[in-house]
Specification:
CATH topology of the largest domain: Rossmann fold
Strand order of the largest sheet: 8-7-9-6-5-10
Distance between the termini: 24 Å
CATH class of the largest domain: Alpha Beta
Number of domains: 2
Radius of gyration: 21 Å
Oligomer: single chain
Largest sheet: 6 strands, mixed
Number of strands: 11
CATH architecture of the largest domain: 3-Layer(aba) Sandwich
Order of helices and strands: HEHEHEHHHEHEEHEHEHHEHEEH
Structural class: alpha/beta
Shape: globular
Helix content: 40-55%
Bound molecules: acetyl coenzyme *A
Number of helices: 13
C-alpha cells in the first residue's frame, strides 16, 4: 500500500476534528466535501455561513456534515478573546485587542485547537507560512520535550536504494532559519517521531555536516557534534549519529570507510540538516534532480498539530494534509 493510502487508513480508523480557517475559499470547500465523503475527518469551516453555502452552490459541491462557525457571530468568540488575553497579556495583549484579533480566522482556528474544540488545524491556501505559524507559535506552543516547532518533508525517491527503499525524511527545510545546537537536537528527535508515527519507520537519524566523525574542525561542525551529543543523551532509545557527510550517511561503502562503527552511517533514513539554507536547498535538489515526491512541509513539535499548505495547493493536497494532521492528532 502506498504511504498516503496508509495515512488515510489510519486517519479513518479514529476520526479527528480538523478546523479549516480558510473556510470560504474554493479549494477548502471542495476538499471539505471529499473529506466528508471519504469519512476521513470531522471538519469545521471557519467563515460566514451564507458565503460558504454560496461558494459551495457555485462549485456544485456539498458541505453537509461540516460545522460552519463565523467568528463575527459565534458565541465562542468572547470566551476565546478572554483566553487569548490571559495567554498573551505579558506580551502586551489587551482585552480590546484580543476581541479584534480573535475574529481573524487563523487566530480563531488556533484558539479552537488550543481550547480542545478541534484536534488540529490546516491552512495556508491563501496565507503565508509565517501568517499561519505565528498564531500557533504564540498560542499552542511546543509539545512537552520539544524546544522548537520545526518541519519535515517525507521524500519518496523513485527507484532508489537509499533510506528505506527510497523513503527518507528531511528536516528542517521550512521553519527554523538557524537553529542552535539544542534546537537542532530537538529537531532530530521530532523528526524521528514523525518517521515512526507517519511512516511506520524505525528511524536512523543522520546529523549532516561537511565533516564526518571529526574529519574537519570548524564552529559550524561543532554545532552539529554538540547537537548529536545532546540528542543521544535525550533519547538513547533512538538511533542517532553524526556528524556525517551525506554520502557517509546513506552509502554503505562510504560509511564503512569513514564511519565503520556507526549504527546509522550507510543506512540513514532521516536526514537532519544543520540550517534552513542547507535543508531547503537540499530537499529541492532531490525533488528536481531525482524526481522525488516531496510530501510536506509537515509541521512537528507543536503541542497540537497545525499544518501549512502551499498557496498553489489543490483540493486533493488539502485532503492529504488533513489526513496527515489527523494521524498526528491521534498520536498526541
Ligand atoms: N518554535 C517554537 N516557537 C517559536 C519558533 C519555533 N520554531 N519560532 C518562533 N517562535 C515563537 C517565539 O518564541 C515567539 O513566542 P512569544 O511571542 O510567545 O515570545 C513567537 O513564536 C513569535 O516569534 P517571532 O520571532 O516574532 O517569530 P516570527 O513570527 O518572526 O517568525 C517564523 C516565525 C514565521 C516561523 C519564522 O521563523 C520564519 O519566517 N521562518 C522561515 C519560514 C520560511 O520562509 N520558510 C521557507 C519557505 S517554506 C518552503 O520552502 C517549503
Amino acid at each position: 500500500m502506498k504511504l498516503m493510502e496508509q495515512i488515510w487508513e489510519k486517519a479513518k480508523s479514529n476520526k479527528m476534528k480538523i478546523v479549516l480557517p480558510e473556510g470560504e475559499e474554493e479549494r477548502n470547500i471542495k476538499a471539505c466535501e471529499m473529506i466528508i465523503k471519504n469519512e476521513l475527518a470531522n471538519i469545521v469551516l471557519v467563515g460566514n455561513k451564507e458565503k460558504v453555502h454560496e461558494m459551495a452552490n457555485k462549485l456544485g459541491v456539498s458541505v453537509e456534515g461540516a460545522e460552519i462557525i463565523d467568528p463575527e457571530t459565534s458565541d465562542k468568540t468572547e470566551g476565546y478573546a478572554k483566553e487569548l488575553y490571559e495567554l498573551r497579556k505579558s506580551k502586551g495583549m489587551t482585552i480590546e485587542k484580543a476581541l479584534k484579533v480573535v475574529k481573524d480566522p487563523l487566530y480563531f482556528g488556533t484558539m479552537m485547537v488550543k481550547l480542545n474544540d478541534a484536534d488540529g488545524m490546516v491552512s495556508g491556501a491563501i496565507h503565508t507560512t509565517g501568517d499561519l505559524l505565528r498564531p500557533g507559535l504564540q498560542i499552542v506552543k511546543t509539545a512537552p520535550g520539544a524546544s522548537v516547532v520545526s518541519s519535515a518533508f517525507i521524500m519518496v525517491v523513485p527507484d532508489s536504494v537509499y533510506g528505506q527503499d527510497g523513503l527518507l525524511l528531511f528536516s528542517d527545510c521550512a521553519v527554523n532559519p538557524n537553529p542552535t545546537a539544542e534546537e537542532l537536537a530537538s529537531i532530530a528527535i521530532s523528526t524521528a517521531e514523525t518517521a515512526k508515527s507517519l511512516c511506520n519507520m524505525e528511524p536512523k537519524v543522520a546529523m549532516l555536516s561537511f565533516s564526518t566523525m571529526g574529519s574537519a574542525s570548524h564552529e559550524l561542525v561543532e554545532k552539529v557534534t554538540t547537537a548529536t551529543k545532546l540528542a543521544k543523551e535525550m533519547r538513547p532509545d533512538i538511533k542517532i549519529d553524526g556528524e556525517l557527510q551525506l554520502d557517509a550517511a546513506i552509502v554503505d561503502k562510504v560509511a564503512s570507510l569513514k564511519a565503520p562503527n556507526s549504527p546509522v552511517a550507510g543506512k540513514a533514513n532521516v536526514l537532519i540538516f544543520p540550517d534552513l539554507q542547507a535543508g531547503n536547498i537540499g530537499y529541492k535538489l532531490v525533488q528536481r534532480f531525482a524526481k522525488a515526491e516531496a510530501i510536506g512541509p509537515i509541521t512537528q513539535g507543536f503541542a497540537k498539530p497545525i499544518n501549512d499548505l502551499s498557496r498553489g495547493c489543490s483540493p486533493e493536497d488539502i485532503v492529504n494534509v488533513v489526513a496527515v494532521t489527523s494521524v498526528q492528532a491521534q498520536n498526541q
